[in-house]
Amino acid sequence: MNTLPVSHPLAAGRTNSSQLVRALRGDRPDRTPVWFMRQAGRSLPEYRSIRADHRMLDACLDPVLASEITLQPVRRHGVDAAVFFSDIVVPMLLAGVDVDLVAGRGPVFAQPVRSAADVARCRAEFGPERLREALDPVREAVRLTVRELGDTPLIGFAGAPFTLAAYLVEGGPSRDHLRARTLMHADPEAWRGLLEWAADLSGVFLEAQVEAGASAVQLFDSWAGSLSAADYRAHVAPASRRALGAVHRMRYCDPASDGYASGPARVPTLHFAVGSGHLLEEFTELDVSAIGVDWRTPLDAASRRLGDAIPLQGNLDPAFLGAPADVLEAHVDDVLQRGRRAPGHVVNLGHGVPPETDPEVLTRVVELVHAR
Q: What predicted TM-score, i.e. pTM, was given to this entire model?
């Protein structure tokens, strides 16, 4: 067990009673918390102004820029949490993997990983210890951000092992992740080694963010929806549990719940995967504090399937952000109503903020949620 210092925002009492942390514990604060995946990014003109002079990965690794971008949506929208500005490939990049973000395409790897020998090379050359030694820019960015946020929590994040592995095996983005799924079945031992390596990188990345001041983390699995429930359970879930285990071992004494007497509390964890309604029951095995639900599954139906036992996050349809104001408002009300079935609810989109979104609409959504 790794106990956080008393100066950490959770242990010091700055964020442990925030709407977000309370909702992730299964509580119902006086207002429903709301934040947006990809809120720190392309929809904001202030972000585009910064990116005009800086490459994406350069901005991620500049502590001042990363902190500023993280803070921008909090200032503009009044959301209940910041989410750390970074990219899922940053841990691999810092561990030494040759990867670049290509405009209009996404992550591209110079040497795809497609054999047991490739996996062995990754584990030997680009291990978690090499990453841990290179994380100072990330730690500093988190510290700068937390200092400015005060009692607003920061959410750290990392890519889930399957999504990282899918990019690596394909060499870049793919529609069906066929090469990755083929490796999963053609060489299960190599696949397991690849996912364990990716999980260890994600775990170290999450751990560093929490140690520097993040009050919760989210594991983001972009491509898990391409898997069957059986394949997810057998070939992917163990690695996601491994990645989250680094944070699950972290504890803090929570003065808001008499933590010093009742024992240390766990740092809240979230999991979100796109197009994964058929995997909801599988996600409960990850032992997370809350599960993100995309727009395809109504929140009340999701909660019913999960025995009304776990807080949920979501699940506004991003398509409604371009709808007339009254249509959007009705949609927000519907999501809030359905979310009441879960023991706790954090409002979010059912995926990330589209780059063409009018920032004023996001601000309006925050106002609507807070007014209900």
A: 0.96
